[in-house]
Design brief:
single chain; metal-binding; metal ion binding; four-stranded antiparallel beta sheet; iron; Nitrite reductase (NADH) small subunit; mainly beta; about 30% strand; three-stranded antiparallel beta sheet; Rieske Iron-sulfur Protein; binds FE2/S2 (inorganic) cluster; Rieske_2Fe-2S_sf
């Protein structure tokens, strides 16, 4: 009996989730490019649905980028400092990101925990010409 045929996915389901993917290190429109400012266009705005987060790699750094329903955008480290949970899958409100694994919260303002489990790194993020640009 032969082994079942398995196919390997050729591309990540979320742009920029693998190091070296096309969304990594794209020059910011209107600037000289990422090396000088360490600014990376990680995705198109529509790649992150309103009210959700997605994980990307910016300059070799894994980041979670969020679009809140109030129109704001936020970026944090991708892994939770508590036990490595996928912060991009967390729940959000205007003030706090909640990790999906153990439900600790982290403030957008400075990354501090609402439950005393450390701090997430918060990265500056903005929209530039329809692209989400993260400074790492
Ligand atoms: S891994 Fe995030 S709260 Fe535990």
């Amino acid at each position: 009996m032969s082994a079942p045929h398995l196919e390997v996915a050729e591309a990540p389901t979320t742009p920029g989730t693998e190091l070296g993917s096309p969304a990594t290190g794209v020059a910011v429109p209107g600037t000289a490019g990422p090396p000088a400012g360490r600014a990376y266009a990680v995705a198109r705005l529509e790649d992150v649905p309103l009210g959700e987060g997605r994980a990307f790699v910016a300059g070799g750094v894994q980041v979670a980028v969020f679009r809140l329903r109030d129109g704001s955008v936020h970026a944090t480290q991708a892994a939770c400092p508590h036990a490595g949970g996928p912060l991009a899958d967390g729940q959000t409100d205007p003030d706090v990101l909640v990790c999906p694994l153990h439900l600790y919260g982290f403030r957008w303002s400075d990354g501090s925990s609402t439950g005393g489990v450390g701090r997430v790194r918060v990265y500056p993020v903005r929209e530039v010409d329809g692209m989400l640009v993260v400074d790492v």
